[in-house]
Amino acid sequence: MVLSKVKADKMSHWEETVALCKEGKIVKGRILRKVKGGLMVDIGLEAFLPASHIGLRHVKNVESFLGKELEFTVIKINPERRNVVLSRRVLLEEERKRQRERVFATVKVGDVIEGLVKNITDFGAFIDLNGIDGLLHITDMSWGRIGHPSEMLKVGQDIDVVVLDINKEKERVSLGLKQKLANPWDLIETKYPIGTKVKGKVVNLVPYGAFVELEPGVEGLVHVTELSWIKRIAKPADVLKPDQEVEAIVLGVNRE
Fold it and tell me: Architecture of domain 188-249 in CATH?
């Protein structure tokens, strides 16, 4: 008869650990090494952490987790193979869900809250609001004219934004940046009464005239027929160019 105390200890330890580590239970462990398809974790016995369950998104540098003490959820136990499978992603998803619930319970339209610029697209920026992604559309970034969101924001930047709309069913939050400042059109009639001589910069030339920026968010149209008394102008580009500083007279104001 050939005996082994080592194997007996392993079997006993396996049974004790499995009795404590039921599926769905949270356990602590230290990440030991990288293996094909994931990582091995010491939770009292060696358990497998699939690469897809390391984080909320795909983790490129799994080696950065080696030696770390973390919490995991037991998602599968196979007694025949003596195999325990863990997940860190499940815990992170549950925590993210709790954070979303806290945000939706406390934040309301009109609040100014802090967020982190997570991603920038052509139409705006996605802001991380501690568990919820809010959309800051390009039209709500500035009262003035901007060509691309990257002109004002960069990924990783902390910003304060105004909550414009909350849709709890779709878990969507609309945000604004320009709303932190007064709308320049609110007092437009008193700032630019008819007959006032103004200075501005040509920001756009179109076949029917030129748009002149008087201040961020306020542009006036100089119609092609108002460009000259003495000659017929075929197109505004014949007499004006972008970014040119010009003087003009206010002929009319339509706030609406």
Answer: Beta Barrel (2.40)
The pLDDT > 90 percentage for the chain reads: 30
Q: Where are the domains of the chain?
A: 5-92, 107-180, 188-249
Round to whole Å and give the CA distance between 100 and 90: 15
Q: Give the pLDDT score at 96.
A: 82
Q: Which stretches of the chain are assigned E, i.e. beta strand?
A: 26-35, 38-42, 46-50, 69-78, 83-87, 112-120, 124-128, 133-137, 158-167, 172-176, 197-206, 209-215, 218-223, 245-249
Backbone angles phi, psi at 122, to 5 degrees: -65, -30
The secondary structure of 160-180 as a DSSP string is: EEEEEEEETTTTEEEEESGGG
| The residue type at 216 | P
Those residues with Cβ within 8 angstroms of residue 27's Cβ, 6 or more apart along the chain or in another chain: 21, 43, 71, 72, 73, 74, 86
* CATH class of this structure's domain 5-92: mainly beta
Extract the residue ranges of the chain whose pLDDT is less than 70.
12-23
Residue 14: the pLDDT is 67
* CATH no., domain 107-180: 2.40.50.140
Give residue for tokens 């000659």. Answer: 231
Structure-block tokens of residue 69: 């003490």
Based on the number of CB atoms within 10 Å of its own CB, is 164 exposed (0-12), middle (13-18) or buried (19 or more)? middle
- pLDDT at residue 13, rounded to an integer: 67
| Residue for token pair 């970014």 | 243
Same fold across 5-92 and 107-180: yes
Q: 235 by DSSP, 3-state: which? A: coil
Full strand arrangement of the beta sheet holding 197-206 = 218-223, 209-215, 197-206, 245-249
